[in-house]
UniProtKB/TrEMBL annotation:
InterPro entries for this protein: CoA-transferase_III_domain, CoA-Trfase_fam_III, CoA-Trfase_III_dom3_sf, CoA-Trfase_III_dom_1_sf
Keywords on record: Transferase
Pfam families: CoA_transf_3
GO MF assignments: transferase activity
Name of the protein this chain belongs to: CoA transferase
Length: 805
């Protein structure tokens, strides 16, 4: 008989609608939780959904629903008979709730009412702006939330002669759902300590800030300038080869130098300005693209890999399942309901198998369970003093850059002791992302990116290229409950620290490995940066204007990997809590990205339709686009950089919203055409609407457009510069930014977490990121070393507090 699944003890009631809630509960069901989806007699709207407009026959379900609802149960309850859910809620562990659900208007089913009636419940609310604050009831879509977050401009994404570009594929919904799953599991873990539930208040605006921007407010306040002020297309980026699209990256001086050699022009390297990559690459782009166009995708990728230049074929719905790396790793599986191809789970465990997905439920298939007798759960009268889910857990954080540290950052913020491992000769790469001259004193301590990703952590430096460093590393591992690493696989393999070796040191350890492309397969050793993961997963394919090559998001690939790795870790922790057994969690970056890009693979496999990029339009709203405004009055109609580059995002989801917009702009003749009263009519006339609505916006400031349309319930947003996030009153009201004082950098705003826990009423404690090697003495003393031993290690350069290049 097979062992119970890690999450088998949890009963989750799904009162959500849309992708975010559905993906959250899919991840929980994949871990073995019993998920009961509550639907009205009309059924969840995703049952009839197809992003490509494929016909979903009556009596059948759309492919996306079949993917997201595998292994769940369905009960049907009308909104006026919510009392029928009483026994189910009384025996459940958690509820997933969203504002879009028809049940959201039922007074007894609001998060506050659920928590009051059932104090044992974890109630996870997924909303655009959070449950509280001045914007809590404002209209929003995933598209307008991206605009508010600063994620539409991101890291300068998009050519300056066109509108900025949002990240396609409704990515905010998927990322928000992954975050909601991890937050729910963390809260359930806390409930196991306190005996009481709580409200988990997740804002997708804040998850978009976390996933689509790179600590821009911290950068502005610490460095007194924006991280990036101009928009541009990264070169090479995505290029057309002889037989398809391929992407190459040159993010560092070394990569640019190697690229110049690769294309036969070493003389392009400017020794006087080795870091002036963007401008130089832009000048030479035609010759680079010509070199790529003369070769096949495979030839370009092979040659680039030989130079360690980040690269990938550009994956989409049509070519993903046939890609050799994915075939060899069994990345795609058959859907148990309809047989189409879908990504497998984003992580794998060595000690146990996750349950295989089962067919999605028919509408109301399990309604009879509402009449079953259930034991009512009772919350503890006197909860424990602390409900931090990871308190008492020691984590060795062998990660760098963005993906791994974003995972361990959440652990540290929620109570774990996280020890960030670096060496004086190989520090975390984010210490270099600051533009600080190396002549500055302690220049490596002045990175806003490192500061933002590593609050609440401790730092130890160990040169594990030395024998003594490896000995100490092994001793440190023995004291840790969890090890998280995101090196390329060969790094730990070369020093004999694969999972078997780590388990020999600490039998119950959970080791989370986050390789770019997995621990095996043809791409095992391929260099992995966020943009390469986006290229290799379809995220790039859906981003950009339809008449141009796709544009790399350059952001989401890293934090998306981090939040999926955390989900995998939480499942592994649930297994260890029950069995005492540790495990290896393989959570590759590309598998995480494929899961949030799943819709395009599903659409192609199920219907033969290839989803394509649509600029700033989308599959749900019509109209949906960015419209230029008259600019900032204080800057003479220009933006803060002196450019005519001010935009608003508008997205109309419903016929009622269209009627409100039409009236708000004065009911001009063109907008009163009866054909525009339906979504299909507006979609077919999208060019006309863009022209006329764009002209109306062009005559007004972004503030005027937003106030006019938002007041009548139309989803609208300013396209924010990322470094202006702290100006948003909603983020200020929710305390999303905390003031953190650093011994070198002074006080600056740092993001907390995009979720608030009612069981943590004081908010998140935020300590500054550690100085390099700041905790060497504390940690090594804990391993039994004397002061003399530690001094000798410093003299031998095994440890240190200053860089030693």
């Amino acid at each position: 008989m097979s062992a119970p699944a890690p999450l088998h003890q949890y009963l989750i009631v799904d009162l959500s609608a849309g992708i975010a809630g559905a993906y959250c509960t899919k991840l929980l069901a994949d871990g073995g939780a019993e998920v009961v989806k509550v639907e009205t007699p009309q059924g969840d709207s995703l049952r009839s959904w197809s992003a490509s407009g494929a016909d979903v026959a009556a009596g059948t379900d759309g492919a996306l629903f079949s993917y997201l609802s595998s292994s769940k149960k369905s009960v049907v309850v009308d909104t006026d008979e919510a009392d029928r859910l009483g026994a189910l809620l009384g025996s459940a562990d958690a509820v997933i709730w969203s504002r879009e659900s028809p049940f959201a208007t039922v007074e007894s089913l609001t998060p506050a009412a659920l928590a009051a009636a059932h104090p044992h419940l974890v109630v996870t609310a997924i909303t655009p702006f959070g449950l509280e604050g001045p914007w809590s009831d404002r209209a929003a879509t995933e598209f307008t939330v991206q605009a508010w977050s600063g994620g539409v401009i991101g890291l300068g994404r998009g050519a300056p002669d066109r509108a900025p570009i949002h990240v396609g594929g409704q990515i905010g919904e998927w990322f928000g759902g992954a975050y909601a799953s991890a937050a729910t599991l963390a809260a359930l873990r806390a409930a196991g300590k306190t005996g009481r539930g709580q409200i988990v208040d997740l804002s997708t605006l804040e998850t978009a800030v976390a996933g689509l921007t790179y600590h821009p407010v911290t950068f502005l306040e610490m460095r007194k300038r924006p991280f990036r002020s101009e928009r541009s297309i990264f070169v090479p980026g995505v290029a057309q080869a002889a037989d398809g699209m391929v992407a190459l990256g040159a993010a560092t001086a070394q990569q640019w130098s190697d690229l110049c050699v690769l294309v036969g022009h070493p003389e392009w390297v400017d020794p006087e300005a080795p870091l002036a990559i963007t401008a130089r690459a832009g000048e030479l782009a035609p010759q680079i693209y010509e070199w790529i166009a003369e070769r096949t995708v495979e030839d370009v990728a092979d040659q680039a890999s030989a130079f360690r230049i980040p690269n990938s074929p550009v994956i989409n719905g049509a070519n993903a399942a046939d890609t050799a790396h994915f075939r060899e790793r069994g990345t795609f599986i058959k859907n148990p309901t309809s047989g189409f191809s879908q990504p497998d789970r984003p992580y794998a465990m060595s000690a146990f198998d996750l349950p295989r997905p089962e067919a999605a439920p028919r509408l109301g298939e399990h309604t009879d369970m509402l009449s079953e007798h259930r034991e009512t759960r009772v919350a503890a009268d006197t909860p424990a003093v602390s409900g931090l889910p990871f308190e008492g857990m020691r984590v060795l954080d062998m990660t760098a850059f963005w993906a791994g540290p974003s995972c361990s950052h959440i652990l540290a913020t929620l109570g774990a002791e996280v020890i960030h491992l670096e060496s004086t000769s190989r520090p975390d790469g984010t210490r270099m992302i600051a533009g600080v001259p190396m002549t500055d004193e302690l220049w490596w301590e002045k990175s806003p990116i490192f500061s933002g990703l590593n609050t609440n952590k401790k730092s130890i430096t160990l040169n594990f290229q030395t024998e003594r460093g490896q000995e100490l590393l092994r001793e440190l591992i023995k004291t840790c409950d969890v090890l998280v690493e995101n090196y390329t696989p060969r790094v730990l393999d070369q020093i004999g620290l694969d999972y078997d070796a780590v388990r020999a040191l600490r039998p119950d350890i959970i080791m989370v490995r986050m390789p770019g492309f997995g621990l095996d397969g043809p791409w095992r050793d391929k260099a992995a940066f966020a943009y390469v993961i986006e290229d290799a997963s379809g995220l790039t394919w859906l981003t950009g204007h339809p008449d141009q090559n796709p544009v790399e998001p350059y952001t989401i690939g890293d934090p998306n990997a981090g939040i999926h790795a955390l989900n995998g870790l939480l499942i592994a922790l649930a297994h260890r809590d029950r069995t005492g057994e540790g495990t290896l969690v393989e959570a590759s970056m590309v598998d995480a990205a494929l899961n949030v890009a799943a819709e395009q693979f599903i659409e192609y496999s199920a219907y033969g339709n290839l989803l394509n990029r649509q600029g700033n339009r989308g599959p749900v709203s019509a109209p949906q686009n960015l419209y230029r405004t008259s600019g900032l009055e204080e800057h003479g109609g220009l933006d803060e950089f002196g450019r005519d580059d001010n935009w608003v995002a508008v997205a109309v989801e419903t016929d009622a919203q269209w009627a409100a917009l039409r009236q708000a702009i004065g009911s001009p003749d063109w907008a009163t055409d009866p054909a525009l009263e339906t979504a299909a009519g507006r979609r077919s006339a999208h060019d006309l609407i863009d022209e006329r609505l764009g002209a109306w916006c062009r005559e007004r400031s972004d503030d005027e457009v937003v106030s006019t349309l938002w007041e009548v319930g139309v989803p609208v947003a300013k396209v924010m510069q990322p470094h202006r996030q702290a100006d948003l009153e909603q983020l200020r009201a929710r305390g999303f930014f905390a003031q953190v004082t650093h011994p070198v950098n002074g006080t600056a705003s740092h993001t907390t977490l995009p979720v608030q826990f009612s069981g943590e009423p004081g908010g998140h404690t935020m300590r500054p990121a550690p100085l390099l090697g700041e905790h060497n003495t504390e940690i090594l003393s804990g391993l039994g070393l004397s002061a003399a031993d530690i001094e000798a290690l410093e003299q031998d350069r095994v440890i240190g507090t200053k860089l030693a290049f």
